[in-house]
TrEMBL record:
Location of region: Disordered: 104-125
Name assigned to this protein: CopG family transcriptional regulator
Organism placement in taxonomy: Archaea, Thermoproteota, Thermoprotei, Sulfolobales, Sulfolobaceae
Length: 233
């Protein structure tokens, strides 16, 4: 039988280690020991070890990811609460800065003569700075995209606390005074045409602008059963 020869290069240390293992296993010839290793039925298990190790690493990684997610979830709501509180603090700081910058009232101004009281009160009202809700009540509706705000979150949070209706779209927030909102909804109920352009023509410019924006965002749809335009917010 024709025999094949395989050469293996080993260092002195490697050869001594292999020789020691062969001796402990009871082999006289090194070649017999090497053959036994190569053709042992357990050798295939040794070759598949890296794949087993990879599977184990994948399982451990998956478990770690789930564990980390479980640890993070409780803090999500706390983060949102913290964000809201920061917005409120910034708002209060802005109000304090506005008061500090304003001119202090003198003793004589605080205690005007009876003959001057009516004139003083009238002047004071005219000089008072309008608040965000005052401006909204005058305009009826404001769009976030048209405002230049340092802190939009604080601005809309304050409006909402003071009674404004806030509509959240994918692109922006829209604030409406309660009076404007009620009139807008009442007008929608009276429009029976499913054509958006015709519906817009029955609204005033501000209402038509709001209507067009909300229709494009899918927040107002025409209800085929009631034959009216229905808000989804």
């Amino acid at each position: 039988m024709l025999m094949k020869i395989i050469y293996i290069k080993l260092t002195d240390e490697e050869y001594k280690e292999l020789e020691e293992k062969a001796r402990k296993e009871g082999y006289v010839l090194m070649t017999d020991y090497i053959k036994a290793i190569l053709f042992s039925p357990h050798s295939s298990e040794a070759y598949s070890l890296p794949q087993n190790v990879n599977d184990l690493v994948s399982q451990i990684t998956s478990r770690l990811e789930r564990k980390v997610q479980d640890l993070i979830n409780p803090f999500t709501s706390q983060f949102e609460d913290l964000k809201k509180r920061i917005a409120e603090i910034v708002e209060r700081i802005d109000e304090l800065e506005s008061k500090i910058e304003s001119k202090p009232i003198t003793k004589e101004e605080r205690l005007p003569q009876p003959s001057q009281r009516k004139s003083f009160e009238s002047t004071k009202k005219e000089g008072e700075k309008k608040t965000a809700i005052d401006i909204l009540n005058e305009q009826g509706v404001v769009f976030e995209s048209e405002l230049k705000l340092k802190n939009a979150d604080a601005y809309f949070s304050k409006l909402e606390r003071e009674g404004a209706r806030i509509i959240y779209t994918e692109k922006e927030r829209i604030a409406l005074s309660q009076e404007f909102f009620d009139k807008f909804i009442d007008k929608l109920k009276e429009i029976k045409s499913p054509d958006p352009a015709e519906a817009e023509s029955k609204l005033d410019p501000k209402e038509a602008k709001l209507f067009k924006r909300l229709v494009s965002e899918g927040l107002i749809i025409f209800d085929g059963e009631t034959k009216t335009w229905k808000p989804l917010f």
